[in-house]
């Protein structure tokens, strides 16, 4: 500062002019770096320069009046003017100086560049001469305002430059006095600053802030910010949507008001530890919702530190994990239910993770091997395998595991008592819905007894193959085997013919009714033996079920050979039978169809043979018919049956009979199953097995099922309150999405309590549109009605359905009861079902109980209910009340 003062006193006026303009330049640079400071400070030194220069020029003139001094002053002014121009040009910002008439007196190179014209084109000219009239007039008005008021004028506007670009400029105008000697002219000094970059930065900053705010407001979770001491400074707007509490009320420590009391202490401790240790926070807790209940949330936060490592803010986010928590709880419950079922299963069950290590072994495995659960986990299960078999078992499993394929191995398992058991170990790979491999689940079946009788691998493979493709009763091939073998038999190019014979026994039902099911089964086995003797080794003999058989012979040259074969079969079957002291006499009818004349596929040939068989049966026992045109008249008869059924339903020609179910612990009737009956005016009684499929086919099952339900509820309302009514629902009734509403309306109409209604379904309800059907079942359950699984064990995967829906009752199909107590397979199955029922708390019922020995067998396994001819046959509604009352007595 001292140096600047001395320089000012000693310097000439041109140098003082240059110093002032240099100062102006430095001030202007400061303005550009500090956008918010006024540019007016830049003009002050320029104004001082002109005032000082004029004063000193006058003083010099007054003291030196001679011509030499005047010449000297003129030279000084010229030098100052030249130096002023040099300095102005050195300033990068545009500067324009005008007189009172808006004529440009002086401007620098930057101003010339801004206006896109040379200095010679601009000096002495007004704005009107090179700008549009409207713009020139506007500038003139602002100049006059400065001249009139003497006050600085500053404004900002967008200006298109000569190069076509648009810049954001700050223009400042200030009044100054001419520096010429004796002049009172006033000048207007305009400085122009380019603030385009700073304004762009400001806009970008505002946009960034708006973007951040939008993200916070639209974020599906709740972002939050806290200071270093843990006090919340800001909370996202979704906090109010979740808790019903204003976001402002959550600031500081106000967020604790929404937290579940049981979670607060733990969360507060975690948060305090994070603040003290500067470690991230990760906590789960329950928050009260606006609706008045609690949901699970996860809160994660991390500290933001300065360069010196100190925390200046905590950033966190609260996310909804309620669905994950519920899914985890459901998974835990599902696993517990699975373990309960698996521990009661008659086979050993195991589960692995994706690495192949065992994560679960059922109770039977642990009891058999003597291992603890900890010893069997991982790969410890291999220690229970016989040393001679271990390498082969591990190699087989690892090979299947590597390919993610089904594994199947046989080996000797060391038992806890020191012996060994031969087992079949079958594993199935498990995959998630996204295709991710989860591991294996498998079963181990004890086959020691079978291995002692026959070879290891051959016997097991043969038995599995036999179970899938052969009839268990007669040992004959079944429909599956027939389908697989049929395509290999046919040669469309060959001249030889193939015949399909459809056989139907006449009199089997009478034998079953007269002597019981066991004699009927023996008769079927004897029929199978006689049929084998009639056939060649190349022929195929299959049992399709019940009393229906199929024979396929290839390589015939003449049609007469087919007829001859049919007659041989009729004669062989028609001979009387001696069945362990019981004599039986049955016959057979045969329908013929030839390939390729009567059909090109197995289904077509069987259908054609069925039509011929229908005609043969109409002609009496021991008749053989070949398919001929017009033989499908029975189809017309079926159509007539449809019409008759529709008429019977409309005129209420159907009626319900009821068959009691007995509580095996008390001996009393607990419920009665409603069974529909139809007495045709011409054909007499028609079996439900005949007209129910017709009702399903024609769409009558809906109104028929509704009538049965209403009639059954009406009758049951008259019974004692402890007796329920059971009604069967067809899978097709679930196509009506209002089924639950229909049931609710019927209960309300008849006055029957919902808890006294039991609805029986089969697992086929889950095969098609299972999600919708499951929803309907849940709606029915909400009404209070009971749901029973009927015909259990005869389908595909009944255990999986028990996991999908909580049934109130399981009814074991009658097919598992017929051979009790001698049937080992049936006994094992009903034992497993009884165990499942006990574990899951589900009532277990057995159908088809006809003998005391069967009743003793199911009592021994702990079943809850039984139904069958041993107790009562189905009776009309008028008789059921008397039976119920006698049961109570």
From TrEMBL:
<dbReference type="InterPro" id="IPR035919">
    <property type="entry name" value="EAL_sf"/>
</dbReference>
<dbReference type="InterPro" id="IPR000160">
    <property type="entry name" value="GGDEF_dom"/>
</dbReference>
<dbReference type="Pfam" id="PF08447">
    <property type="entry name" value="PAS_3"/>
</dbReference>
<feature type="domain" description="PAS">
    <location>
        <begin position="334"/>
        <end position="404"/>
    </location>
</feature>
<dbReference type="InterPro" id="IPR035965">
    <property type="entry name" value="PAS-like_dom_sf"/>
</dbReference>
<dbReference type="InterPro" id="IPR043128">
    <property type="entry name" value="Rev_trsase/Diguanyl_cyclase"/>
</dbReference>
<dbReference type="InterPro" id="IPR000014">
    <property type="entry name" value="PAS"/>
</dbReference>
<dbReference type="Pfam" id="PF08448">
    <property type="entry name" value="PAS_4"/>
</dbReference>
<dbReference type="InterPro" id="IPR001610">
    <property type="entry name" value="PAC"/>
</dbReference>
<dbReference type="InterPro" id="IPR000700">
    <property type="entry name" value="PAS-assoc_C"/>
</dbReference>
<protein>
    <submittedName>
        <fullName>Diguanylate cyclase (GGDEF)-like protein/PAS domain S-box-containing protein</fullName>
    </submittedName>
</protein>
<dbReference type="Pfam" id="PF00990">
    <property type="entry name" value="GGDEF"/>
</dbReference>
<feature type="domain" description="PAC">
    <location>
        <begin position="407"/>
        <end position="459"/>
    </location>
</feature>
<dbReference type="InterPro" id="IPR029787">
    <property type="entry name" value="Nucleotide_cyclase"/>
</dbReference>
<feature type="domain" description="GGDEF">
    <location>
        <begin position="496"/>
        <end position="629"/>
    </location>
</feature>
<dbReference type="InterPro" id="IPR013656">
    <property type="entry name" value="PAS_4"/>
</dbReference>
<feature type="domain" description="EAL">
    <location>
        <begin position="638"/>
        <end position="888"/>
    </location>
</feature>
<dbReference type="InterPro" id="IPR001633">
    <property type="entry name" value="EAL_dom"/>
</dbReference>
<dbReference type="Pfam" id="PF00563">
    <property type="entry name" value="EAL"/>
</dbReference>
<dbReference type="InterPro" id="IPR013655">
    <property type="entry name" value="PAS_fold_3"/>
</dbReference>
<feature type="domain" description="PAS">
    <location>
        <begin position="208"/>
        <end position="278"/>
    </location>
</feature>
<feature type="domain" description="PAS">
    <location>
        <begin position="80"/>
        <end position="150"/>
    </location>
</feature>
<dbReference type="InterPro" id="IPR052155">
    <property type="entry name" value="Biofilm_reg_signaling"/>
</dbReference>
């Amino acid at each position: 500062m001292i140096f600047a003062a001395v320089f000012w006193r000693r310097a000439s006026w041109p140098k003082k002019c240059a110093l002032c303009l240099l100062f102006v330049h430095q001030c202007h640079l400061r303005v550009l770096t500090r956008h918010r400071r006024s540019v007016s400070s830049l003009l002050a030194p320029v104004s001082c320069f002109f005032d000082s220069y004029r004063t000193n020029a006058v003083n010099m003139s007054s003291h030196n009046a001679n011509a030499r001094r005047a010449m000297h002053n003129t030279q000084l002014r010229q030098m100052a003017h030249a130096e002023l121009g040099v300095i102005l040009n050195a300033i990068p910002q545009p500067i324009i100086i005008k007189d009172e008439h808006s004529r440009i007196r002086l401007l620098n190179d930057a101003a010339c560049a801004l206006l896109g014209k040379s200095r010679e084109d601009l000096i002495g000219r007004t704005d009107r001469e090179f700008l549009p009239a409207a713009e020139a007039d506007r500038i003139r008005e602002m100049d006059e305002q400065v001249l009139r008021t003497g006050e600085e004028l500053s404004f900002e506007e967008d200006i298109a430059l000569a190069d076509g670009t648009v810049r954001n400029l700050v223009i400042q105008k200030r009044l100054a006095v001419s520096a010429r000697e004796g002049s009172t002219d006033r000048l207007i000094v305009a400085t122009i600053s380019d603030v385009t970059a700073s304004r762009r930065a400001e806009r970008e900053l505002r946009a960034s802030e708006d973007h951040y705010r939008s993200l916070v407001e639209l974020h599906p979770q709740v972002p939050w910010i806290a200071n270093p001491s843990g006090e919340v400074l800001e909370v996202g707007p979704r906090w109010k949507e979740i808790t019903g509490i204003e976001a402002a009320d959550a600031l500081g420590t106000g967020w604790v008001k929404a937290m579940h009391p049981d979670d607060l202490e733990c969360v507060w401790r975690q948060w305090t530890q994070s603040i003290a240790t500067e470690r991230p926070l990760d906590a789960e807790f329950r928050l009260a919702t606006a609706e008045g209940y609690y949901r699970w949330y996860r809160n994660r936060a991390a500290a933001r530190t300065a360069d010196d490592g100190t925390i200046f803010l905590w950033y966190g986010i609260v996310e909804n994990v309620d669905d994950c928590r519920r899914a985890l709880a459901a998974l835990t419950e599902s696993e517990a239910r699975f373990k309960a079922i698996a521990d009661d299963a008659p086979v050993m069950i195991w589960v692995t993770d994706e690495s192949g290590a065992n994560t679960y072994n059922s109770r039977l495995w642990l009891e058999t091997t003597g291992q603890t659960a900890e010893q069997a986990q991982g790969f410890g299960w291999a220690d229970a395998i016989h040393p001679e078999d271990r390498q082969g078992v591990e190699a087989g499993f690892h090979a299947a595991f590597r390919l993610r394929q089904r594994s199947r191995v046989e080996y000797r398992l060391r038992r806890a008592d020191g012996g060994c058991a031969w087992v079949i170990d079958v594993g199935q790979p498990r995959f998630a819905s996204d295709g991710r491999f989860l591991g294996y689940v498998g079963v181990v079946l004890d086959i020691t007894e079978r291995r002692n009788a026959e070879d290891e691998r051959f016997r097991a493979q043969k038995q599995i193959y036999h179970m899938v493709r052969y009839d268990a009763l007669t040992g004959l091939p079944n429909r599956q085997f027939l389908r697989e073998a049929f395509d290999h038999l046919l040669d469309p190019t060959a001249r030889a013919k193939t015949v399909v014979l459809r056989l139907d026994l006449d009199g089997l039902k009478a034998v079953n009714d007269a002597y019981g099911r066991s004699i009927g089964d023996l008769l079927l086995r004897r029929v199978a033996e006689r049929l084998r003797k009639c056939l060649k080794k190349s022929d195929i003999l299959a049992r399709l079920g019940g009393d229906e058989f199929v024979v396929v012979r290839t390589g015939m040259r003449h049609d007469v050979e087919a007829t001859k074969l049919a007659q041989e079969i009729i004669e062989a079957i028609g001979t009387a039978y001696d069945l362990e002291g019981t004599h039986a006499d049955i016959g057979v009818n045969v329908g013929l169809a030839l390939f390729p004349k009567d059909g090109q596929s197995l289904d077509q040939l069987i259908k054609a043979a069925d039509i011929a068989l229908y005609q043969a049966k109409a002609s009496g026992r021991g008749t053989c018919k070949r398919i001929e045109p017009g033989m499908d008249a029975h189809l017309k008869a079926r159509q007539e049956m449809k019409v008759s059924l529709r008429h019977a339903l409309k005129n209420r020609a159907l009626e319900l009979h009821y068959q009691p179910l007995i509580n095996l612990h008390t001996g009393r009737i607990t419920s009665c199953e409603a069974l529909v009956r139809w007495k045709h005016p011409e054909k007499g009684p028609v079996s439900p097995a005949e007209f129910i499929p017709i009702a399903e086919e024609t769409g009558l099952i809906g109104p028929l099922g509704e009538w049965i339900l209403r009639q059954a509820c009406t009758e049951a309302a008259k019974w004692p309150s402890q007796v329920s009514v059971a009604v069967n629902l067809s899978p097709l009734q679930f196509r009506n999405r209002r089924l639950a509403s229909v049931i609710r309306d019927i209960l309300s109409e008849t006055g029957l309590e919902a808890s006294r209604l039991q609805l029986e379904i089969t697992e086929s309800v889950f095969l098609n549109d299972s999600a919708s059907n499951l929803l309907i079942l849940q709606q029915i359950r909400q009404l209070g009605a009971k749901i029973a699984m009927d015909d259990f064990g005869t389908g595909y995967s009944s255990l999986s359905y028990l996991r999908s829906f909580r049934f109130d009752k399981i009814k074991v199909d009658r097919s598992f009861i017929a051979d009790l107590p001698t049937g080992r397979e049936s006994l094992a199955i009903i034992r497993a079902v009884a165990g499942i029922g006990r574990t899951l708390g589900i009532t277990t019922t057995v159908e088809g109980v006809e003998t005391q020995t069967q009743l003793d067998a199911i009592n021994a396994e702990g079943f809850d209910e039984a139904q069958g001819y041993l107790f009562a046959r189905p009776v009309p509604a008028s008789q059921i009340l008397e039976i119920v009352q006698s049961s109570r007595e």
